[in-house]
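Inverse folding, one chain.
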């Protein structure tokens, strides 16, 4: 039931600016959170004109305030017997349409603002998946790089000793993200089970023998490529023969490259925080298998690709610089799959100048606001993260469904459901963009499509 609107004094634009000013004042020194909120608010101008009830019910003020923020000490012993102390977080952002759901990130750059931006994005992304999941995100400033398996296990056990009080299969269901893969989910699940004496679907991304879903590891990358294929289809085009740039070399990047190969495209690059490898011959299945072994088993660096495959070129980089050589390589499509703000204005200019036709975001918020604006103005196909990378959390939703039924679906069943979900997300974004007068603008489509379902559920549930 919606609340009646009193006669409006402010325009939607004024209202948005006022709320944005308050968000910045209440959340100082959190630029990534401000950026994520600003991007959504820019799209919502179109909605607020048609729906004054969101304003009178203060939905924007409420949706930008996490339902709960948990911050805690994580003490652990390193291999030398020395005490280390990290900081743990869980942001429970919004549970209007389901239990909190979203990954855990272990990376030295993690702080409250970064996790708030990720949790905020997650709310809209989860809404787009068509599955009943609220939004959350968590993690720690712990850096798994260079740590032994035992150190990672002791850290995960200490982290879960506190986190277990706040999560549960019907409350909050974390998953992986940067620095949290199968190994970490295993250690976290083991400690949860030990402390709670419960074998439940409290985490997703679990091992196949103990409640995991087939296709979950592949889902974000595969889903992003399925989404890109839909974008191209809307222009009667396909991925066949397309030259593709992929950044990162972790989970999302690896399975993006795999699905690109399945669909006949030619991936050219990988990267990590040390640099970029460009392989003019293309990354084939054999080279991809080598990268998977390098990254997932030996936990090595991508520069080793340049030593192993002689025609490949390694270019050192630094994320703090104003541009990356990766986005200045001539190609048809770009799949940023490493981290936030990795495509800056100069990178966007380089991509457009070199004739790039499509950007599909595997990483969360990989393009700055300036870069996003440039893609939209250039009229290229631009698939924003909250739509393009929603396949990961969607398949986590499928893992939850299997856990609840105590069943396991086949690889084909899960892949088929993932593919259909990505087609549905694209259709929703495409049609919503059109309905609100900005055809082809999938940023507006994703933000508005994701927002409406959550906002309406919040109205239905009263002032909570
Ligand atoms: P991984 O940890 O598996 O891989 C991350 C990759 O990105 C690594 O190559 C890493 O290099 C690079 N990277 C991370 N941080 C930085 C940085 N600050 N500067 C330069 N390179 C960096 O993570 P995922 O593949 O899981 O995640 C990648 C992105 O996809 C993230 O934005 C994540 O939020 C998003 N995402 C992931 C989902 C999932 O299911 N895993 C779901 C939806 C989105 P290095 O090893 O040097 O750090």
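Residues assigned per position:
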């Amino acid at each position: 039931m919606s609340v009646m609107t009193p006669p409006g004094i402010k325009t939607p634009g004024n209202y948005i600016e006022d709320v944005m000013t308050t968000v910045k004042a209440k959340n100082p020194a959190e630029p990534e959170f401000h950026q994520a909120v600003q991007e959504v608010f820019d799209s919502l101008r179109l909605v607020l004109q048609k729906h004054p009830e969101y304003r009178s019910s203060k939905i924007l003020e409420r949706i930008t305030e996490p339902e709960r923020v948990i911050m805690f000490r994580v003490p652990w012993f390193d291999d030398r017997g020395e005490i280390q102390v990290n900081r743990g977080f869980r942001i429970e952002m919004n549970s209007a349409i389901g239990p909190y759901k979203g990954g855990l990130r272990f990376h030295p750059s993690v702080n409250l603002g970064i996790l708030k931006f990720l949790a905020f994005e997650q709310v809209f992304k989860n809404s787009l998946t068509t599955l009943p999941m609220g939004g959350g995100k968590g993690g720690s400033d712990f850096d798994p790089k260079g740590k032994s398996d035992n150190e990672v296990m002791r850290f995960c056990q200490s982290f879960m000793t506190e986190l277990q009080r706040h999560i549960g299969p019907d409350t909050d269901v974390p998953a992986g993200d940067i620095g949290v893969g199968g190994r970490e989910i295993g250690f976290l699940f083991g400690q949860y089970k030990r402390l709670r004496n419960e074998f439940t679907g409290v985490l997703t991304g679990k091992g196949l023998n103990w409640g995991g879903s087939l296709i979950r590891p592949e889902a974000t990358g595969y889903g992003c490529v399925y989404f890109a294929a839909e974008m191209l289809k809307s222009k009667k085009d396909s991925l066949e023969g397309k030259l593709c740039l992929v950044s990162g070399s972790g989970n999302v990047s690896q399975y993006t490259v795999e699905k690109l190969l399945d669909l006949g495209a030619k991936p050219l690059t990988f990267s990590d925080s040390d640099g970029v490898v460009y392989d003019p011959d293309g990354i084939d299945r054999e080279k991809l298998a080598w990268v998977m072994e390098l990254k997932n088993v030996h936990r090595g660096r991508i520069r080793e690709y340049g030593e192993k495959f002689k025609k490949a070129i390694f270019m050192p980089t630094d994320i703090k610089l104003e541009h990356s050589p990766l986005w200045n390589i001539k190609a048809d499509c770009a799949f940023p799959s490493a981290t936030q703000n990795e495509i800056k204005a100069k990178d966007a200019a380089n991509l457009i100048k070199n004739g790039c036709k499509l950007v599909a975001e595997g990483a969360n918020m990989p393009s700055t606001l300036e870069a996003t604006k440039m893609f939209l103005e250039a009229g290229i196909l631009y698939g924003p993260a909250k739509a393009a990378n929603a396949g990961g959390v969607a398949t986590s939703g499928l893992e939850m469904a299997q856990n609840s039924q105590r069943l396991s679906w086949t690889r084909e069943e899960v892949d088929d459901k993932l593919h259909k979900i990505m087609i549905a997300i694209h259709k929703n974004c495409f049609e919503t963009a059109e309905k609100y007068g900005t055809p082809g603008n999938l940023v507006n489509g994703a933000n508005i499509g994701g927002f409406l379902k959550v906002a309406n559920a919040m109205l239905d549930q009263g002032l909570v």
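The radius of gyration is 21 Å. The chain is about 45% helix and 15% strand.
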